From TrEMBL:
CDD domains: TIM
Organism: Comamonas sediminis
Primary role: Involved in the gluconeogenesis. Catalyzes stereospecifically the conversion of dihydroxyacetone phosphate (DHAP) to D-glyceraldehyde-3-phosphate (G3P).
Subcellular location: Cytoplasm
Gene: tpiA
Name used for this protein in its record: Triosephosphate isomerase
Length: 247
């Protein structure tokens, strides 16, 4: 059975003072967690957070990574640069990147490749919009998104993490029911199994408004191996409750 992973995504939130306070409270209450824990922070704070997390049980994650290695790509941050700061995970293909920055399946797959090549584990985000769900396209959409990454990374598929984030449930307060989430996770698990005999090693996280109140029910599902946590990761006590539910 794969070890559960709880990854907080701070999105575009934080300040030097707020980050120090949040992580101080988290580290004080964490103890020895029964699951893997990570926080994905804005790029400008990677250095600060690396120092604050030094020697702790919380891994450092980035919210994005460039599809390029180096060069004239203003504003981009490469996988090698992130690795310089001890980044362990990088989100790729978050729905906000797909929606607001026009990221395609092919671009997301390239980003996953670049992360892996630098020794960083990509957290590959997949998920359908409300319109796609209502049109009965959920399975087709998530399989298409994941297939691009599987095709690009080949045998390294066992080194990725997958996060299912129904777009209609992100930041809306709506959550897929545990049964709805499990049914999609089962589809993703079967797709991974078809690509590799070692697919059981790949954690499949749920990322649609998981919070302290619903984490236990969601994490009890057989194919939900953790959570990608948005708003609740900015509240230390809520994040600690979710981590405890994953133990």
């Amino acid at each position: 059975m794969v070890k559960k992973l709880i990854a907080g995504n701070w999105k575009m939130n934080g300040s030097l003072a707020a980050n120090e306070a949040l992580l101080g409270e988290l580290l004080q209450g964490l103890g020895q967690p029964g699951c893997d824990v990570a926080v994905a922070v804005p790029a400008v704070y990677v250095g600060q957070v690396q120092a604050l997390l030094q020697g702790s049980a919380i891994a450092l994650a980035a919210q994005d990574v460039s599809a390029h290695d180096a060069g004239a790509y203003t504003g981009e941050v490469s996988a090698a640069m992130l690795r310089d700061f001890g980044v362990r995970y990088a989100l790729v293909g978050h729905s906000e990147r797909r929606q607001y920055h026009g990221e395609t399946d092919a671009l997301v797959a390239t980003k996953a490749q670049k992360a892996l090549a630098a020794g960083i584990t990509p957290i590959v985000c997949v998920g359908e919009t409300l319109a796609e769900r209502e049109a009965g396209q959920t399975e087709a959409v998530v399989k298409r998104q994941l297939a691009a990454v599987i095709h690009a990374v080949g045998a390294c598929v066992t080194e990725i993490v997958v996060a299912y984030e129904p777009v209609w449930a992100i930041g809306t307060g709506k959550t897929a029911s545990p049964e709805q989430a499990q049914s999609v996770h089962a589809v993703l698990r079967a797709q991974l199994a078809a690509a590799s005999t070692q697919a059981a090693k790949v954690p499949v996280l749920y990322g649609g408004s998981m919070n302290a109140g619903n984490a236990e029910q969601l994490l009890a599902q057989p194919d939900i191996d953790g959570g990608l946590i948005g708003g609740a990761s900015l509240k230390a006590q809520d994040f600690l409750k979710i981590i405890a539910a994953a133990a």
